[in-house]
Design goal:
About 25% of the residues lie in helices and about 30% in strands. The chain has about 270 residues and is α+β, with helices and mostly antiparallel strands. The chain has two domains: about 80 residues, no CATH class; about 180 residues, Ribbon (Umud Fragment, subunit A). Strand 8 and strand 9 form a beta hairpin.
Amino acid sequence: MDFDFALLLVVLTTVTGVVWLFDWLLLARRRAHRAEAIKAMTALTEEEREARARTAMQESVPVEYARSFFPVLLVILLFRSFIAEPFKIPSGSMMPTLLVGDFILVNKFAYGLRLPVLNTKILDVGEPKRGDVFVFRYPQNPKEDYIKRVIGLPGDEITYRNKVLSVNGKPVEETDLGAYTGPTEPGRRKDDAQVKRENLEGVEHRILEIPQAWSAKEGTWVVPAGHYFAMGDNRDNSADSRFWGFVPEANLVGKAFVIWMNFDGLSRIGTMIK
């Protein structure tokens, strides 16, 4: 069963907020009135009146928890929904740019502000650019997040054949950098992969290719309006738009911009994603 953290966060924030507001508007006043009535009792000693008044003013356990947690939950919800959200890289489809286990931050306002859970855009502040590393909800299962690189914009013609990527009829510039020597996925050799530098209209980044492997699904695709063509930097090991189609604009989550943690390589902390 898929776990929807955003929905849980919205529910908890709403519940604690409603409990705190109900107490502030109604119950707190009742407690204050009771405390004043107790203080006016002449049959009690002053110490008894003060003790009973303090007891009358005490909040219930649910109200105390709501008052304590609501501000924290609200800040987390607003930050996660409209500023930045953390993600963990689960696979090697974006190697060598991103490694398995990288913890990254995603800019949530780069492609427009969206309501949490509903994902409805409420403010248009930008659109994906060619070469962006972006997170989106997988079109075939919107409860699952994917991360790839933007290759094709609306209206573009994308061709991938014999490991050569072309955009609008023009082959993308590549430079050989030699054998890949970095970390690899479990069960995969690192000595069969080659690193290349790819230049997507000024956005330079590294990609992985396995020369002796059959090319991944080949073909030509025309990107429809309101959609994007996505590919992984690990070109021979990425389930992307070559296989399952285009990314609708409504599925955009945000732009990946920094690696904030990787327990297998502390030197990667703070690395900007490009």
